[in-house]
Amino acid sequence: MIDGSISTVAYSLPVPSTMNAPALPGLVAELSAGLAAGGDLPALLQRFLAPVVDLCGAQSGVVRMLSADGQRFDLVAEHALPHSLLPSARSVERDCGVCGRAAGEADMAWSDPAAPCVRSGRPARSGFARVLAVPLVHRGEVLGLYNLFFDRPDATLDAPVAMLLKTFGELLGLALANERLEREQLRAAVLAERQHMAAELHDSVAQSLYFAKMRLMLLDAAIQRGDDAAARGYCAELRSVVGQAHAGLRELLTQCRAPAAPGGFRGAIEASRAGLQQAAKIEVEVEDRSPELQLDGERDLQVHRIVQEALANVARHADARHAWITIERRGEALEIVVDDDGCGLNAAPAGSESGHFGLGIMRERAARMGGRVDVLPRVGGGTRVRLRIPVGPAVERAHAA
After folding, report:
1. Of 34, 36, 87, 104, which is most buried with the most CB atoms under 10 A?
2. Cβ distance 111 to 6 under 8 Å?
3. Is the CB of residue 338 less than 8 Å from the CB of residue 310?
4. Where are the alpha helices (DSSP H) in 38-111?
5. Which helix or strand (DSSP H or E) is residue 17 part of?
6. Cα–chain-centroid distance for residue 7?
7. What is the separation of C-alpha 323 from the centre of its chain, rounded to a whole number of angstroms?
8. What is the pLDDT of residues 129-149, one digit of tens each?
9. Model-level pTM?
């Protein structure tokens, strides 16, 4: 790096004769228009760096963006920089030399041509006597900087030009902030979609495969004892559940959404109840105290998945003989409670697949509806899973709209 230790910004000397100061406002306006139009930011930086270098009477210039870890400024554009300087210019530590001063004070800074680089101890490079660092700032945060390199040790700018260069830095800072925000939003959207897909696979295909696994055990037992009728029945159920898993997976892959359950969440709960009774020999009772209450398609699916996972955990871990499902409206909330008389909250073995992952998915689904899932000890032994989601008039009007 060619910058050295820093002196205070000076504006007292005249503008160099090569400076075309009236052209800078037009350049700033053109840059504003380019940023508003969007597009490739590095290409835009490259495009506007050359006229800035020329207008300020500099010999070359670079633009650097702050690295993801906030420790370095990495090169994204350069103009007329000698090839011999490119390796050292590609990355500069945040607190090094004139760049560090400009970043630390969020203000323009000039280098001292007589001093070496703070970090490397390298002397100023031949051909450049002074360096100007202009930070790219947005709301007080430095997101990058640009350097202009001059061959005269007395190079300086008058105050109006310096203010225009700072405006240029603020515009570029805004552009970098917007680009970072877009990256963060894209990253969040991708993460949310991955979590959604994982939840749907867990609650649809994984549940079907678990049912098939249990049926295979019963099929094997039927074959061992020579019960052909039972074996044929289990084979038919296996064909059905594998077909359901295949259809569900195809639906997820082609439409990126889970198929709606026939009969809504009540139909899905009834299917899960029947499957639990058949596969795990657990008696399940359902009490619907609000049969008139209906949900829109998305909330219907989320409620179905939450109750499905609660029942699957009863089958896997509870060692229960009975389970009870209660559906009722409490004020402006729908409450669904799944009780079992099993081993209690510590039933799931350490490292089990469902454990924390399944419970986390249940809670994420509830949170998307503005509700919550609580896992509690049941009075008399066992576990209670309680789902509460808002279904008041305001929510119903919003979903209807």
Report:
1. 34
2. yes
3. yes
4. 41-55, 86-89, 97-105
5. none
6. 42
7. 38
8. 889 999 988 888 898 898 999
9. 0.43
